[in-house]
Amino acid sequence: MSTKRWVYAAVAALVAGAGVTVAATHSGGGRAVDTEAAEPAAATRPDGGRPPGTGAAAAVRPDGRRAAGAGAAASAAARPLRAGTGLYPRVVRLAHSGAANGRVIASVVTFTGNAGLGSVYESTDAGRTFRQIGSIADSYGAAGKGACCGTLYELPRKVGTSPAGTLLWAAAFGRNVTPDRRMTIRLWRSLDHGRTWAYLSTIATAKTAGGLWEPELTVSSDGRLVAFYSDETDSRHSQKIVRVRSSDGRTWTGRTDTVAFTAKAERPGMPVVRRLPNGHYVMSYEACGSRKCEVRLRTSANGWSWGKATTPGTRPSVGGRHFAHAPTIAPRPDGSLLLVGQTLVTASGSAASGNGRTLFVGAKGGAGTWRAVTAPVAVPDARNDYCPNYSSALLPAAKGTSVLEIATDYAGTVCTPYFATAATG
User: Fold this and answer.
1) Is there a cis peptide before residue 333, judged by omega within 30 degrees of 0?
2) Whole-angstrom Cα distance, residue 38 to residue 53?
3) Residue 364 in 3-state DSSP?
4) Residues pairing with 268 in the sheet
5) How many angstroms separate the CA atoms of 30 and 33, rounded?
6) What does DSSP assign to residue 58?
């Protein structure tokens, strides 16, 4: 598979309104995907971009929908979180918010007209139903400038003027500004559990026309807010993962490489960081380039120190199968880990049995062996494409072994988020 060097283009998907749905399994037909083949012309990222040198323009319409004939949706029979486009699903269960604890809050990136925004949803019945409660409209994503890769986080403790329980949402803006873009990652906060939002700070601004993507947030053991993101602005690296930190959520310092390989063409990206019950931290990310976007894990004792940036970390596998592209990781209450990636592949890189239908369960902290379980949301045509099973969200139950998953797939021509809950054993 060719290296993921992406040129980003406009996507402005029409908002079709919030959906109030009940949990449903995600079913439908679909062909196996050969991930060892060259990327097709329609291979695109959630922001509508495509890799250069892959032939004709990506088969994505200006409204963000897939063009007719560009591939059948596998999800036509499933019920969505919302009735329209929703990318980069994220979900948290409030645990530091007093009387609101236990509510499940979800977010997706969507579009209205040519403006990118975040849409926020709430469930008060453990993820069985959702309703839209808020929206985040940043001027930096308006007028076709572009929005991508939103993330959602609840503060476990006070940071600056933001008390424990504050919801934070960050995203990358400005991908479509021409001719000389300067992308930014901007941070918003909500003090009322997702209903209203206010701009808090700019985490990073690109010094070149390169991209800044996929922000991720955590609070390190010293109480500082840490932001991770994928960075294309270093001429020595096609892409790397960096981190910065803040004592107040407003001023960001200490920019440091987290994953940056020696070979320039390598592209680590899409970090997801979670704090474990024992106080340590784990990161999942994709290692694109020579490693063909295989999913890797790194660990940290304090949330800030991650070891040598050139260290790739471990690659979870089950019976020779491993995940590739767009991973998410989540700790269960006992410290064991749940892991998902966009595609499940064999050692040779071809589609494996269970592709689009599988989660991995690992021992505490990810040490030792892993086992495969059936995913709550099945995306049977998962493949290297901006929509199907791309950067799915996982939320383990507060007690027991069930997990809520939000995964995207095509509903007709629209990239739509679906949710369901299932036991993982």
Assistant:
1) no
2) 11
3) helix
4) 287
5) 9
6) P
